[in-house]
Target: HECT domain-containing protein
Amino acid sequence: MLNKEGHMLQKNPRMMISLEVISTIKNTYQEIPEKELKIRRNNIIKDVLQYYEDPTILNFKIKVIFEGEIGEDLGGLTRDMFSSFWKKACQEFFRGEDSVVPSLPIHRRREAADIFAAIGRVLCHMIGVFDEPGCNTTFTDHAVLIGWLKIVGVKAGE
Model:
């Protein structure tokens, strides 16, 4: 791996595992059928989580349609959906400054396992499509990323 100046970086074993998992997801994503997601911008959290409650969503490439809008998804609408979702999800489901952690108010703790499993699937799908996370804070640190991928059943080399 090279830095911005083109010099070789020292390999970090934890980073290599994460890169291997991401590579596995990306390679798998290229070979699967499509599923159309109809999303309402004003209800993006609920709509996206509803689709991602179903673990089989990871068996499909997604094609996004924003309700009431004209456009064909050639990648931009999917990117827009992930970006908009993570912007709101980071505010609603995570706490922190430079690095965020999952957090729900006490009255929503019963649904936490289902919500964060669905969020893990969103993250997994997003990694399969794009190189960069859609959240502007670093919540994908190694432990969190590997933990979420284990929740949704993705392991390095699978």
